Amino acid sequence: MRSLRTGLSLASLLATLGTLLLTAPAAHAADTPLRDLGTAKGKVIGTAVTGSKLTGTYGDIAGAQFSSLTPGNAMKWGSVEPTQGSFNWAEADQIVNFAEAHGQQVRGHTLVWHSQNPSWLTNGSWTPAQLGTLLDNHIATEAGRYKGRIAAWDVVNEPFNEDGTYRSTLWYNGLGSGYIARALTDARAADPAAKLYINDYNVEGVNAKSTALYNLVKSLKEQGVPIDGVGLQAHLILGQVPSTLQQNIQRFADLGVDVAITELDIRMALPADSTKLAQQKADYKAVTAACVAVTRCVNLTVWGFADSDSWVDSTFPGYGAATPYDANYAPKPAYYGIAEALGGTTTPPPTGACSAAYSVPSQWNTGFTGNVTISCSGASLSSWKVTWTYGAGQQITQAWNATCTQTGAAVSCTNASYNGTVPDGGSVTFGFNANWSGSNPVPTVTLG
Ligand code: XIL
Fold first, then answer.
1. Ligand 1: residue whose CA is nearest its atom 7
2. Are the C-beta atoms of 406 and 395 separated by less than 8 Å?
3. What is d(CA 59, CA 87) in angstroms, rounded to the nearest whole number?
4. In terms of CATH architecture, what is 353-447?
5. Residues with a known catalytic role
6. What is the pLDDT at residue 347?
7. What pLDDT shows up at residue 346?
8. Which pLDDT value is given to residue 356?
9. Which pLDDT belongs to residue 155?
10. pLDDT value at position 425?
11. What was the pLDDT predicted at 351?
């Protein structure tokens, strides 16, 4: 243990202050949650969620940052009626209850789809009349159960092929394209307050598929079929935000329906790196800005808010890191891209780094005590070495909490056996005594 000396000289105090001023400012997360930034712009900001995860940090972020929840799987037919006539509402109920407790909307997803249906339904052989009754009853049961508690339903999911023709599904093959109007009409009867959507992917830009959706919505409106909105899923690839996104949102708005970005994620080839994460931030910002630019774009929902809760990694081999939070629930640059497009002013924390700072807490006529503190933020160390060069003949005589050697003017200090670890957000300090004469300038220290 070293003994503390009192009475700092002015010179050493200035040297210490000089070092402190070199210290980087602490990183701050965004002060204003996305949901509040969204409210200020008239946008609801949502995320898909898994009911069982809505506790701890995941629950805290889901509740604090978002004003809308979409059950990722819990409301799909295969989830709610795995056996015909036998229902399981547990996860869907949990999500709706959580949303109400946190002042959030719920987007119901989804009533009619070709995927994630129960096997009793897909394996059955049904007459068109039976299929129609199954459809009617399913919508009456599910939309009826949550009547008044769902802001918007994705009534029909993914009805189109890429070329704009109707997808060949259980519903289309059995009932023709009229199944869409029938489902919308059923949903309106079951829950008159819910906004009714058709939702699809690869319809974000102006293309054959989105034009087919446009023509369908136009014709449904002309026929008086209840249709309130279109959902653009927006499962995008890094650097490939369609240039016609805003124009496409606008043409639907001009048709007299709302638009929601319903399942936004932006995947990249793994591993992620800082260049890709910066591009992803720009992409998230561009999508959010396109929604902000069109009044009738009412909701922007991410399909899972954390990289550990995304469907991307298992669905698109080699791709991932698609969401705004990393697997440890730290906001990524993408998070700040959304925040900035919503008018948020916070800047992202600097990329993780460790640094060393030299100070002189005590100095007397022939000697001084020096300290070096190694700090990490967003990074960590398991061993360290700090080097510097003395410019005025200073000579180290003794060190503690490090092994220091000096050859001529070159000093090199490495960790002791017990303090090589510097955790993320932590620091380690070592000290030394040295001789000086004439002057004692503060050297530039290097960590490496
Ligand atoms: C995905 C879920 O996120 C996965 O957990 C599940 O295994 C498959 O479905 N389009 C949709 C969503 O409309 O329902 C899909 O969700 C993703 C693609």
1. 311
2. yes
3. 26
4. Sandwich (2.60)
5. 158, 263
6. 60
7. 64
8. 86
9. 99
10. 76
11. 57
Report the distance separating Cα 396 and Cα 8, nearest Å. 20
Which pLDDT value is given to residue 421? 93
pLDDT along the chain (448 residues), means of 10: 40 42 37 95 98 97 98 98 98 98 98 98 97 98 98 99 98 98 99 99 98 98 98 98 98 98 98 96 98 98 97 97 96 97 76 78 94 83 92 96 96 96 88 95 87
Give the CATH H-level superfamily of domain 10-341: Glycosidases (3.20.20.80)
Strands 385-389 and 105-112: unpaired
By alpha-carbon position, which residue is closest to atom 15 of ligand 1?
72
Provide the pLDDT for residue 2.
42
Ligand 1 centroid from CA 211, angstroms: 23
Looking at residue 3, its pLDDT comes to 39
**Three-class HEC string of 140-178:** HHHHHHCCCCCCEEEEEECCECCCCCECCCHHHHHHCCH
Give me the pLDDT at residue 288, please.
Answer: 98
Test site for ligand 1: of 201, 303, 309, 312, most ligand atoms within 8 A of the Cβ: 303
Element (H, E) at 34: helix 34-40
Q: Residue-wise over 55-77: b if at least 16 C-beta within 10 A, else e?
A: eeebeebbbebbbbbbbbbbbbb
Residues at CB less than 6 angstroms from ligand 1: 72-73, 157, 233, 263, 311
Distance (angstroms) between ligand 1 centre and the Cα of 311 equals 7
Domain boundaries, the chain: 10-341, 353-447
Pairing of strands 258-269, 44-49: unpaired
Residue with tokens 């000697």: 367
Q: Are 267 and 322 in contact (CB under 8 A)?
A: yes
Residue where the block lists tokens 């898994």: 50
What is the sign, positive or negative, of the torsion defined by CA atoms of 101, 106, 112, 118?
Answer: negative
